[in-house]
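Quick start: what a row looks like.
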Amino acid sequence: MTSLSALTLPDHTQLPDSDGTFVKNLQEHPQSILITDSIKPVLEKLHPDGQYCIGQDSGIYWRLTDPPEKGAEAPDWFYVPNVPPTLDGKMRRSYVLWKEYVAPLIVIEFVSGDGSEERNNTPPSQGEGGNVGKFWVYEQAIRVPYYGIYEVAKAQVEVYHLIDNTYQLMRPNERGHYPIAPMGVELGIWQGFYQNAELPWLRWWDAQGNLLLTGEERAEVERQKRERIVEKLRTLSAEQLNALGIDLEMLD
């Protein structure tokens, strides 16, 4: 009789956390930081209990294979709602579906080549050597509700929405953005300067079309506000400042 231990499936500590390949594009790391940093205030409101997970170039294991890494896809960025941020007090080495059960709400791939890898719809029955298309995995196996394909070379992003078990290419709204309704945000392209590079960056907006800022950008906005307030206060007389309880030296 087969023992229970023999039926136990491996968890994130027992599976490889890398397939040995390099990040293909030097922009990928700052791009991930940008969309993670700016979305955190939104996710903290959606999850006041802190129950969510963000993965950046991390594996999602969806099937058991030999070697194990053949059974994983590693999106450049993904978000999973309503799961603990850590497991047994440790950061995940990977995200293992048969242990967590909750699929990511959105996965995003940053295209380094011609985009064919990200749009590959090959099912297991047709894949050579056990290879399966990324698009097929996200759509049919993991069933991710939203799939984004970002191409910096074309300054564009495609977003697919899973409807009736099939990905439908979304149409942008009047702002050229793609609403991700469960998050209350929009995804789109922002041409600007970030991390010492002027590029068409992938970014978030709120449902009203306001750009979601990074922590550094928010700090800069607050600094400019303080400077404007100080300049207005400098136009007041010493008597007016005293009436407001402000010492002139405080403005220096």
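That is the whole record. Confidence is low (pLDDT under 50) at residues 1-6. The helical segments are 4-7, 28-46, 97-100, 134-141, 215-234, 238-243.
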